[in-house]
Write a structure and sequence with these properties.
- With 655 residues, the protein is an alpha+beta fold.
- The chain is 47% helix and 23% strand.
- It has four domains: 184 residues, PAS domain (Beta-Lactamase, 2-Layer Sandwich), CATH 3.30.450.20; 59 residues; 223 residues, PPM-type phosphatase domain (Phosphatase 2c, domain 1); 119 residues, Heat Shock Protein 90 (2-Layer Sandwich).
- It has a six-stranded antiparallel beta sheet with strand order 3-2-1-6-5-4, with helices on both faces.
- Helix 14 packs antiparallel against helix 15.
- The chain starts with a helix and ends with a strand.
- The N terminus is likely disordered.
Length: 655
């Protein structure tokens, strides 16, 4: 810190040097180009005047004669001498007479001026041919066609440097265009002069800048750097010392002294404030630690996933608005054949709501675990909760019991949101909208049980107010309609239950944006997967890792119908080949395997992909070999489209 502050003067001086140098260079460059423009314009006008003057001395009839005969005479010698004198006196780089060819791609030299410094091999003779380059095609040819002298500034480079080009027309006695006189004047002298100017200007400016920087650095050290270094050292002592005190020492009579006095006062204020803040921070840290532990305990109360079941899948999601929340979900077995699911939300907020939630969750689970019908259990719970609370707190609860073998779902909705039911192949719809009063709201409430039959592939979606209200994704429109629209989107509807919860929470977060979450969010999905003896389904990812799950499903379905042993072995081989074949072409979509047994006819259907794809017709190589193998073992194998998906059906006949 001290090292950095002590170099402020140096940094300021360097900044001034850089700025001044940039300004100097910019002015020099501007002067260079302005001067170049003026000088080149002057030389261009001079060249035009010389070319016009020289053209007036040229006899066009004689030029035509020289062009036709390629022979010279006394007039040619006189004209050569005159051009030589003009070139010598006017410092001309090239000066010559030429006749352009009718094709306008070349011209013929008639005469070129030569002085003592010229090399003879670089001077053209009568009859020499010159082919036009790009610059002649751009400027000379249009002037030849227009029969006019050059009027614009033309600069070009040649082996001898930069020059300006100009020309004038020569006419015969009849007024017809015969030839042209071209004059090229070197501007190398201009470049040399301007280069010396820039070099001198930059050197002089640099000397002036160095002198100014030295003077400014001295003043900067006396007025700014030295007092600032003292102030910085005092400030560092203030923040690093054991005692938060500082006495103003700078007496400069300017802003530095004001800053020093302000720092002195601030040090005393900080000392008093720090003492108070230390006590407050300790209390906050203790409270934050306790809340963190409590939040961990609350999270541990949520149920652990139930795995290894192929007859149902249940999962939930709970996101409190603050560290802790008053909503919860739960699922547990009442006995091996009955599963209970609960989603609840306690009224109010803060620590009281959290404590009441823990009490309510424990009482609800204990009461339902007795095996009492759900309506009776909820009636008893309401009485107990009403008697145990004295602050008018209530809890909305949706509690349901699934009879796993039959799919019968019995439930009571005590103030909760109306659940949505997804039937296989359909869309989400609300089930019975009968909603009773919340638990602990009134003492004498008798709850009534409602029932719904679940078939294989049906799904229940339970949710709390945090999904519909506050700043959730469903604000700004009819909440119920928006919720159904989201759930019935193809991507959500066909996803796994756990993925569905993630997508819904993603919608909530995306809609809320940077706003703070103000309500607890809770969701739960129960999917019933148990089929009957006649027909059952299983949906898996199209990969080799899913094969054993599919084969176990086929074995179980055949065993329930008294089919196993050798028949299962034959069927399993063909199922394996068919499933792996489809997995290679399913493009990431989940596939559904359906096993239907109708007397002696066993149908195994595999649903995959929405884009029509008949693998029986398109398969090649090892895929075609697999199909031939399956046909040799199965009674039937055919493709069709059902419910907008491809289906490969394989039939085996049991003996």
């Amino acid at each position: 810190m001290r090292k950095s502050i002590s170099k402020i003067g140096v940094k300021t001086s360097l900044l001034l040097i850089v700025f001044a140098l940039i300004l100097c260079i910019a002015l020099s460059v501007f002067g260079y180009f302005s001067s170049y423009q003026a000088y080149s314009d002057f030389y261009a006008r001079s060249a035009q005047e010389i070319a016009a003057m020289a053209a007036n001395f040229v006899d066009g009839d004689k030029i035509k004669e020289y062009y036709d005969t390629l022979e010279t005479d006394d007039y040619y010698d006189w004209l050569q001498q005159m051009f030589n004198n003009i070139k010598q006196e006017q410092n001309i780089m090239y000066m010559y007479i030429f006749v352009p060819a009718p094709e306008l791609d070349r011209f013929t030299y008639i005469l070129e001026a030569m002085i003592g410094t010229d090399s003879p091999e670089n001077i053209a003779s009568l009859g020499d041919i010159y082919y036009f380059e790009n610059i002649e095609k751009k400027y000379l040819v249009p002037d030849i066609i227009a029969r006019k002298p050059s009027t614009e500034k033309i600069t070009a480079s040649n082996p001898y440097g930069q020059g300006v080009m100009t020309w004038a027309h020569v006419f015969d006695s009849g007024g017809e265009f015969v030839a042209m006189v071209e004059v090229d004047i070197s501007i190398n002298l201009v470049f040399d002069m301007l280069t010396r100017y820039m070099t001198t200007a930059i050197l002089i400016s640099s000397v002036i800048i160095i002198i100014m920087v030295i003077i400014m650095a001295w003043f900067n050290h006396r007025i700014v750097t030295k007092p600032l270094r003292r102030l910085t050292a005092s400030a560092l002592n203030l923040v690093s010392g054991d005692e938060l005190s500082y006495v103003a020492e700078i007496k400069t009579g300017d802003e530095m002294q004001t800053l020093s006095e302000a720092l002195s006062k601030m040090s005393y204020d900080i000392r008093d404030y720090t003492k108070r803040l230390t006590g407050i921070a300790a209390d906050k840290e203790r409270i934050a630690t306790e809340l963190s532990v409590a939040a961990s305990i609350q999270a541990s109360l949520l149920p652990k996933p139930i795995t290894g079941r192929d007859d149902f899948e249940v999962c939930g999601l709970n996101v409190p608005a603050r560290i802790m929340g008053g909503n919860f979900y739960d699922f547990f077995f009442i006995d091996p054949n009955r599963l209970c699911v609960i989603i609840a939300d306690v009224s109010g907020g803060g620590i009281p709501a959290v404590l009441f939630m823990v009490i309510a969750r424990t009482m609800i689970k204990n009461q339902l675990m007795t095996g009492m019908p759900v309506d009776k259990a909820m009636t008893v719970l309401n009485t107990h909760l009403f008697d145990s609370t004295s602050n008018n707190m209530t809890v909305s609860v949706f509690a349901g019991v699934l009879d796993i073998p039959t799919g019968l779902f019995s439930y009571v909705n005590a103030g909760g949101n109306v659940p949505l039911l997804l039937r296989r192949g359909g869309n989400y719809k609300y089930i019975s909208e009968q909603v009773a009063s919340k638990l602990a709201g009134n003492r004498n409430v008798i709850y009534r049980k409602l029932e719904v039959d679940l078939d294989q592939g049906d799904r229940l979606f339970l949710y709390n107010d945090g999904v519909l209200g506050a700043n959730g994704v469903l604000d700004g429109g009819p909440g119920a309609d928006r919720l159904i629209s989201l759930l019935n989107s193809l991507k959500v509807r066909e996803s796994r239950p756990e993925d569905t919860l993630g997508m819904m929470f993603g919608e909530l977060s995306a809609f809320r944006g940077s706003e703070e979450q103000t309500m607890d969010i809770g969701m739960l999905i129960l999917e019933y997967s148990r089929g009957d003896k006649t027909q059952a389904d299983i949906t898996v990812a199209p990969s080799e890792s899913s094969l054993q799950k599919v084969l176990a499903f086929i074995r179980k379905q055949l065993a329930e119908n008294g089919l196993g042993g050798a028949f299962y072995a034959i069927t399993a081989v063909t199922v394996e080949e068919l499933f792996l074949l489809i997995s290679r072409w399913a493009a990431g979509d989940r596939v559904t395997v359906r096993c239907g047994i109708y007397g002696s006819r066993v149908e195994i259907k595999i649903f995959y992909g929405k884009k029509p794809l008949n693998l029986l017709e398109t398969a090649e190589g090892k895929d075609a070999d697999a199909i031939r193998f399956i046909r040799s073992r199965a009674s039937e194998l055919y493709h069709d489209i059902q419910d907008g998906r491809n289906v490969l059906t394989m039939v085996h006949i049991s003996q």
